[in-house]
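A favour between colleagues. Tell me how you read the following sequence-structure pair.

===
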Amino acid sequence: MTEAKNFTSVKEFILLGLTSQRKIQLLLFGVILIIYLLTVLGNLLIIVLVQADVKLQTPMYYFLSQLAGVDICYVTSTMPLMLTQLLAEDGAISLAFCMIQIYIAVALGGVEILLFGVMAYDRYLAICRPLLYPVLMDKRCQLQCSSTCWISAPLVCVIYIVCLLCQNYCGPNQINNIICEMPMVLRLACSDTSIIEDFIFGIGSFVLLGPLTFILTSYGFILHSVLQMKSSGRLKAFSTCGSHLIVISMFYGPLLWVYIIPKTDTAADHDKQIAIFYVLITPLLNSVIYTLRNKDFHRAVAKIL
């Protein structure tokens, strides 16, 4: 009985965070709080504008507002805990809450991946099949696409959490990161995880690379059609699709590093540095990139003001 109790003794993990120096922690608290507020307000502005302005109630902006909702949910699942830990100078997180954070992060990441695929398909129809576009991408199709993204991704991610919960954690409980990451938590398991790691790698490769292949194929057809347009229409198409591709690149780059590229023993610090980018920076930049050069959003803001 004692041996079995010790074998599953870990009840919480310790997130090492970015630094142990108190002054820098307080500085980071202020910076992360500002980033969090700007991210929520920026993405909330997108949702409000799309709902308030009739000219923004198109499929492209509908899916963009869905993407903004994903970013709000994601930063709310990570940043408030980071702020609390920085303020309290305590990186402890319970095993249950760690699993919940992993599930929410992975599920929302899956929703975002699928939304990127839907947005690429939407742009393909709008540019390559303009006459059929209003029929193929009507209100019903928009709702079906968004519902599929929000339902299927969380269901698939249950597999990841089941794999993690089936492991025993009895050894080190320190995670060299700012949030709970599935690969790092799995490395802390006492049992042999090679089969589970291969299984998760296979599913992750399919979930990540499948939509990415679809996205790149769609934009390949889009590029072919855009090059045949007149200069005025070509510029607008490049501007819209360019914003999409920048956001997709910022999203996929870190994910491919964390979940697909094989790791070495010295990769922990690199994982933490990359986590800073996709946890703090990417959700903020998404709203900025989509709205900064978008004249429709500029007009909608001016109209409301």
